[in-house]
Backbone:
């Protein structure tokens, strides 16, 4: 199946459907959604999916999977054990990293500040962050949100003694490292997926709000939507709630094991991949998106639209990927750090959301998601 491959085509093909879906969600209660009949096709797909997950669990799958259809939870389960040396089963109450699925939350925090009139997406980043080189200070926040600023993918110190992603650098060191680079392309003229752009955006959220970015996310977005169970330090997780990663049969720990600053992970991960979550919280977040409660309506509509085209022809917006699939348009994001992996895919036409989190390096997010989506939704048409 071929489909829209540019932002303009996406807007024409999906915006009316999304507006209709969001309007319907505002009118219909979740109780009414839960009463929708499950089609034979989807029921069969769910049976296939559960059978395959059981087989994969026997072969080392560690993680969590959730499936939501029209607001109704069809599947919410954990697989494997909490650690190499911890035989407790993974349950939906266990906590796992979101990795780059953090980015939609960071983008939402920026949009919330825009909705509150505290910044605009046209603001140059230098208006909010002091000390940036002239090559960067005029870049609009919009270009940071869409990975079109020309920044590198990462700015890690490869000589640091430990995993360089978890080096606890502060905001000033982040800016010093950014200043060593020059744009790969003129800002706004290309696409280059960059964790650094979201490190800077989290810093902007902090400077504008006067709060640690995670605290602002909690107070401005998560708490008003009734969502608990997403964050790094705000939920006050205990280590025994964490699923421990593994690779090659060896224990790879969890995020609370890592070096960090007093108010969170270092600024080379903050805002780009530092959040943890329970799948129940992700389901609540998705329901808040469907119901229109996540952001004010004009900003939610902007958030659910692609802005730039990626190299493979798919779209990227404000912390969200947009692509076509054999089952229609998909909105979501995935993440991974060579041990943990996540994927959230919202198939908007059948209104099915699939959330996958893995803690075994053998199971990469894109491969795992494609396999499970095909089992649930049927083979390519």
Residues:
């Amino acid at each position: 199946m071929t489909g829209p491959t540019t932002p303009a085509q996406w807007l024409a093909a999906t915006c009316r459907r999304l507006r209709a879906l969001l309007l319907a969600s505002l009118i219909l209660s979740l109780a009414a959604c839960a009463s929708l009949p499950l089609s034979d096709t989807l029921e069969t797909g769910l049976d296939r999916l559960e059978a395959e997950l059981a087989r994969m669990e026997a072969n080392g799958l560690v993680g969590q999977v959730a499936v939501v259809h029209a607001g109704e939870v069809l599947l919410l389960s954990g697989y494997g054990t909490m650690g190499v040396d911890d035989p407790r089963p993974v349950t939906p109450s266990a906590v796992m990293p979101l990795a780059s699925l953090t980015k939609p939350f960071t983008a939402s925090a920026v949009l919330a500040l825009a909705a509150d009139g505290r910044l605009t997406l046209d603001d140059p980043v230098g208006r909010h962050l002091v000390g940036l080189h002239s090559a960067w200070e005029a870049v609009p926040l919009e270009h940071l949100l869409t990975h079109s600023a020309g920044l590198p993918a990462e700015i890690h110190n490869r000589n640091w003694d430990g995993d360089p992603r978890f080096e606890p650098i502060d905001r000033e060191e982040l800016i010093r490292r950014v200043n060593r680079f020059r744009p790969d392309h003129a800002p706004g003229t290309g696409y280059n997926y960059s964790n650094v752009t979201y490190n800077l955006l989290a810093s902007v959220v902090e400077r504008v709000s006067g709060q640690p970015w995670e605290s602002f996310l909690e107070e401005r977005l998560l708490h008003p939507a009734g969502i608990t169970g997403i964050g790094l330090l705000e939920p006050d997780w205990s280590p025994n709630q964490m699923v421990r990663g593994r690779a090659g049969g060896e224990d790879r720990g969890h995020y609370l094991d890592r070096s960090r600053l007093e108010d969170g992970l270092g600024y080379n991960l903050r805002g780009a991949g530092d959040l943890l979550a329970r799948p129940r919280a992700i389901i609540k977040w998705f329901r808040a998106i469907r119901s229109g409660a996540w952001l004010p309506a004009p900003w939610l509509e902007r958030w659910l639209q692609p802005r730039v085209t990626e190299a493979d022809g798919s779209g990227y917006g404000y912390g969200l990927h947009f692509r076509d699939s054999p089952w229609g348009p998909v909105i979501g994001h995935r993440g991974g750090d060579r041990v943990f992996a996540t994927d959230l895919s919202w198939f908007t036409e059948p209104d099915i959301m699939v959330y996958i989190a893995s803690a075994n390096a053998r199971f990469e997010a894109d491969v795992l998601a494609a396999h499970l989506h095909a089992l649930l939704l049927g083979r390519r048409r």
